[in-house]
Design brief:
heterodimer; A: 316 residues; alpha/beta; four-stranded parallel beta sheet; globular; B: 426 residues; TIM Barrel; 2 domains; eight-stranded parallel beta sheet
């Protein structure tokens, strides 16, 4: 079975075949995006609303561009400045928007499960652009596409995910996706930034960078959120950089052809050394951004197809 | 005065731990005779054939939230009383976490008056241990006792200042008052919506280690030992807390412990896709913990099962999981949910009613909770096998936040008696 769902709320419900289907289609959109005429009209006539309850520049731009390249009418709503401030509940906001007949809602929300809740209340397709510490499915898919293109495969790789895993939805979605595709996953973080019970996900857990990075094919760094500093999760930025920041010395433990990834935005000198981030032989960080647009185009294209299918089935 | 004979019943006596077939005679609201051979007086009696169904002492539910004063749209004494009667609960012991908190004799008198006017079952009230439940100054424990408070608790707010708590406990001890505490370390549990572990990590929810319960339990036990107060832990929900509880009881401290029906019959995975009706305080635990708690009820280490009835309106539950209010209604589903443990073979009926009726009566010094001559005729007659599907909109409570909506259950209440008076017939 490929990808037949109405919504894309997380990686958890997806089958490996569904993941591959999205990535295969995304590959073709990478080609489209590299042409001078980047326009397709598979979403022509459809309305896409981007609802971001949490600040975002990069992800929102990526979704907006993806929708526009596919011919959708795209509207951005900065929810932080709007009715939420007036005390409207999430469900009321959803019902209000639903009455405007959008075809696709792209939603980011600071609380885990909020996008699931919203999806239960609307008729259109909902795409999770990140909910709390829960999931960020398009990020995991774009990471998967980047790895597949760089390594030629997406299975039996040794992949290290390093940094603030406890607070990261990117880490969760990646752990689930890479696990489904049968990779070996290593998690590296100080114990204060490691979620409990994580070993039960089938991951190897390390507290030491040198040990954790030994012979890995892929190094995924996570952003250290500055607000964590106040929470006392780590003693200081400089100690964190010393023990968990990726530099040339630590990267030596990985395979010679290991790639370095980061979901951005980066804190240079906190979790990653600037030279590593800019090393065109190791860093695929810019590729990730490029794959992001393609993956989002593929996901939205498939959601629109699934919806059309369901509506015609409903009519028949 | 009316005399009622309940004949052909399966009698559950938690005091002797026995089940016998027989009859029970009620006169003047009190059990006059009970057993396989009951002499019936010649004069007019009302005789009810129980058809071999179960007759047990009515449930005494410690820790029920009735939202008066302050939030009567969520639950009133009338609706809570009706829900209790329909659930075989003959005495509810209310919590003071209302708006405002029940922390003065005046507010207590208001609730006592409202309860007596509106509720068909017995209502006993607890008062706050500290003013405003703020953990800074003790309430007028003496006056509140005189006004009828049966216990003192700040509910889910833990008094963090141990000096304040020690003074309140010592003062309560001098008056023989019962204090109820919520064992949960406030630092570790701050902001938590789930129990830490695989499930919380998968769902990305802020979580609390089960150790927070043992930490708070250990602290409170030390203070109980120091002050000699009579103390009840509202909910023990983790296996790790049990050895400390065992030691404290063995050391002769005047301690009892309760647990909620939700922690006995549900686990963390029931939350599934962020179902907020399963958000309770403390959060649902791992299955291993649930099983250990069931065992502790069987052994008698945990004395009391309660519903922790906490009404919440739809608005406060229709929110993202972290933001949603905690708590579940439970008065009406307490008995059928508890019967799950009977049907699964974990607990027999006398053991179940020891925790539901006898032990709470003993702890509160009530002449109820048992089927003995002279005890108050607070009784429930039910069919333990009758199947039904829970429909939350049919509950008597004003709030419909039950985690059991749509669940298949067994055990229907047929009649409920309070002091010999029939208050419910199903």
């Amino acid at each position: 079975m490929g990808f037949t769902d109405k919504h894309l709320l997380g990686i958890e419900p997806l089958s490996p075949a569904a993941i591959s289907e999205i990535l295969d289609l995304a590959d073709s959109y990478v080609d489209l995006n590299r042409r001078s005429n980047k326009h397709s009209d598979v979403l022509a006539g459809l309305t896409q609303i981007n609802m971001f309850f949490e600040n975002s520049t990069r992800t929102q731009a990526s979704f907006e561009l993806a929708g526009k390249r596919l011919g959708a009418d795209v509207m951005n709503m900065a929810m932080q400045a709007s009715s939420i401030k007036k005390g409207e509940t999430l469900i009321d906001t959803a019902l209000t928007l639903n009455a405007m007949h959008p075809d696709l809602l792209v939603v980011r929300h600071p609380q885990s499960g909020a996008v699931d809740l919203l999806a239960q209340k609307v008729n259109c397709s909902v795409l999770n652009a990140g909910d709390g510490r829960h999931e960020h499915p398009t990020q995991a898919l774009l990471d998967a596409l980047t790895i597949r293109r760089a390594k030629g495969r997406l299975h039996r790789l040794s992949i290290a995910i390093c940094g603030d895993i406890a607070h990261s939805r990117v880490a969760r979605s990646n752990i689930i996706l890479l696990g489904k595709m049968e990779n070996r996953i290593r998690l590296i973080a100080p114990p204060t930034l490691m979620p409990s019970g994580i070993a039960e996900f089938g991951c190897e857990v390390y507290e030491d960078m040198h040990q954790g990075l030994q012979d890995v094919d892929v190094v995924m760094m996570l952003r250290l959120q500055r607000e964590r500093m106040d929470g006392g999760f780590i003693p200081s930025e400089r100690e964190y950089y010393h023990r968990y920041g990726l530099d040339a010395q630590k990267l030596k433990a990985a395979k010679d052809d290991a790639i370095v990834m980061h979901p951005g935005p980066m804190n240079r000198g906190v979790e990653i050394d600037g030279d590593i981030a800019d090393d065109i032989n190791r860093s695929v960080i810019q590729d990730q951004v490029e794959m992001g647009v393609a993956v989002r185009m593929a996901a939205m294209d498939l959601l629109a197809r699934n919806r059309k299918m369901q509506m015609s089935e409903g009519a028949a | 005065m009316t005399i009622v004979l309940l004949r052909n019943a399966r009698l559950i006596d938690p005091e002797t731990g026995t089940e016998t077939d027989g009859s029970l005679l009620i006169e003047n609201g009190v059990i006059r005779a009970v057993g396989s051979a009951v002499d019936t007086p010649a004069k007019d009696i009302k005789s009810i054939d129980c058809n071999g169904k179960v007759l047990a002492p009515g449930i005494i539910d410690i820790g029920v939230k009735v939202c008066e004063p302050g939030e009567r749209h969520k639950e009133s004494f009338k609706t809570a009383g009706q829900a209790a009667a329909a659930g075989g609960v003959t005495t509810i012991v209310t919590r003071p976490d209302t708006l405002p908190a029940i922390d003065t004799p005046e507010t207590l008198e208001f609730t006592r008056r409202r309860a007596n006017e509106a509720a068909p079952v017995n209502v006993l009230t607890m008062a706050a241990l500290t003013k405003g439940r703020d953990g800074r100054e003790m309430t007028e424990i003496g006056f509140l006792l005189d006004a009828g408070a049966v216990g003192f608790t700040d509910c889910d707010r833990v008094v963090t200042d141990t000096k304040v708590l020690t003074r309140a406990l010592s003062y309560a001890r001098s008056l023989g008052a019962l204090v109820m505490g919520h064992p949960q370390d406030p630092g570790l549990s701050k902001g938590a919506a789930a129990t830490s572990g695989k499930f919380a990590s998968l769902r990305g929810l802020p979580a609390v280690s089960p150790m927070a319960e043992r930490m708070a339990l250990d602290r409170d036990i030390a203070l109980i030992e120091m002050t000699g107060v009579r103390y009840h832990f509202d909910q023990i929900t983790t296996g790790r807390a049990l050895p400390a509880l065992r030691r404290a009881k063995d050391n002769g401290l005047d301690i009892t412990a309760g647990t909620s029906i939700h922690h006995l019959t549900l686990n963390e995975f029931d939350v599934a896709d962020y179902r907020t009706f399963f958000k309770v305080k403390p959060p649902l635990r791992a299955e291993d913990d649930r099983q250990l708690i069931v065992e502790a009820v069987r052994d008698g280490l945990i004395d009391i099962i309660c519903s922790m009835h906490t009404p919440q309106d739809e608005e406060s539950k229709r929110l993202p999981f972290e933001e949603a209010a905690s708590g579940a209604v439970g008065l009406e589903t307490l008995l059928p949910a508890a019967l799950r443990l009977y049907h699964s073979g974990d607990l027999d009926l006398p053991t179940l009613f020891r925790a539901l009726s006898l032990n709470p009566a003993k702890r509160l010094g009530l002449a109820a909770g048992r089927l003995t001559v002279g005890a108050s005729a607070d009784l429930v007659l039910f069919d333990p096998d009758a199947p039904f599907v829970v429909d939350r909109f049919k509950l008597h409570s004003k709030s419909k936040n039950t985690p059991f909506d749509g669940t298949r259950m067994q055990g229907k209440v047929m009649r409920t008696f309070v002091a010999g008076r029939e208050v419910y017939e199903g």
